[in-house]
Amino acid sequence: MKAKEGVVDFLNKVLTLELTAVHQYLLHASTCGNWGYARLQHELHEMATEETGHASQLIDHILYLEGSPNVQSLGTVKSGPNVSKLFEEDLKFEVEDANLLREAIAHSAKVGDYTTRHKLEDMIKETDEHIDWFETQLRAIKQVGAENYLSEQIKK
Amino acid sequence: MKAKEGIIDLLNKVLTTNLTAINQYFVHAKMCENWGYERLHHHVCKRSFDEMKDADEVIEHILYLEGVPNMQRLGTIQVGETVPEQFKLDLKAEQEMLMLYAEGVTHCAKVGDYTTRHMLEDMQKDTDGHIDWIEMQLELIKQVGLEKYLSEQIHKEK
Q1: Is residue B29 part of a domain?
Q2: Looking at the domain assignment, is residue B90 inside a domain?
Q3: What number of CA atoms fall less than 13 Å from residue A74's CA on the CB side?
Q4: Helix and strand tally (H, E) in chain B?
């Protein structure tokens, strides 16, 4: 099926973000693992898997719309010297992702592509959940202190 | 543990080829699915996951050696417009990977890093398996013809 105007461009933009997220979460998961925080490693690894799922759906959908999926672009992968810093970068990233998804959803509605809109809405739901998770962790760190928080992350 | 000379650079090069391969194979798998070749979709997708597991292992090993994994670099992703073209491009990618592993194994032995060498040797074995499979498909296409080959790819293996 031929895509409506601008839809494939939006989907490719979202795809770039998702692929960048996979790289960032894989890195952050292993970094936490290396620091001894098995629980965080597990959580972040799950997120990388979810983002891979999103990338997979986007590629499928772009091909279905007879477009070319762009898997060559990669955004900036951010890292940090401690867990709080990693979370802050991840949160920033997810917020950016949610903003782009909102734009793409509005565009899909405008051109009348409700299938794409529906798919993107499913994605934004998970993105919101990620945002919530990072916000919760950062708040917990603030409330109980980094040491207490981290000591709870050693066991899965 | 501190890394021996040149090891982190080497591992980061391996990481880049793995990350590039993940994306290339993933797109190829999805294209096969879109064309209706379920069996190929399944096979190529698995190859992409194999690369992801390798990438994961390399990242962990770089961190263990107190290096910084480079997640920012991506090689050129070559997308084939037909099944045989995809196979040829994937074969090229795997062969380049194999050469990099061979170089890496030699270097590790030279500087005496046998843990890294062992890891690379395991990965090399997987790459050999991938090359073998792709070569087999290309040979099959040559022997039975593209149409017959593709008609066998519509159903997934049980």
Answers
A1: yes
A2: yes
A3: 21
A4: 5, 0
Contact B22, B54 (CB under 8 A): no
Q: Which residues contact residue B117 at a Cβ distance below 8 angstroms, ignoring those fewer than 6 apart?
A: B104, B105, B108, B109
Q: What is the dihedral sign for C-alpha A33, A37, A40, A46?
A: positive
* Residue B23 touches chain A, beta carbons under 8 Å: yes
B66 interfacial to chain A (CB closer than 8 Å):
no
| Closest CA–CA distance from residue B102 to any residue of chain A (Å) | 26
- Å between A27 CA and nearest CA of chain B: 7
CB contact under 8 A, A23 and B19: yes
Range of the domain at B90: 7-151
CATH class, domain A7-151, is mainly alpha
Residues of B in contact with A52 (CB under 8 A): 52
ipTM value, please give it: 0.88
Number of domains in chain B: 1
Between the alpha carbon of residue B43 and those of residues B32, B119, B125, B138, the distances in Å are 10, 24, 17, 15
Identify the CA nearest to B158 among candidates B38, B18, B4: B38
And the tokens for B65?
């050696």
Give tens-digit pLDDT for B58-109: 999 999 999 999 999 999 999 999 999 999 999 999 999 999 999 999 999 9
**CA B70 → CA B5, B19, B120, distances in Å?**
17, 10, 18
Does residue A122 come out as left (phi exceeding 0), alpha (psi in the -120 to 50 range) or beta?
alpha
Is B105 an interface residue toward A (CB < 8 Å)? no
- In this prediction the pTM is 0.92
Domain-embedded: residue B2: no
List pLDDT tens digits, range B114-149.
999 999 999 999 999 999 999 999 999 999 999 999
Which pLDDT band holds residue B1 (cuts at 50, 70, 90)?
Answer: confident
Given an 8 Å threshold on Cβ–Cβ distance, is A74 in contact with B27?
no
Tell me whether residue B156 is in a domain.
no
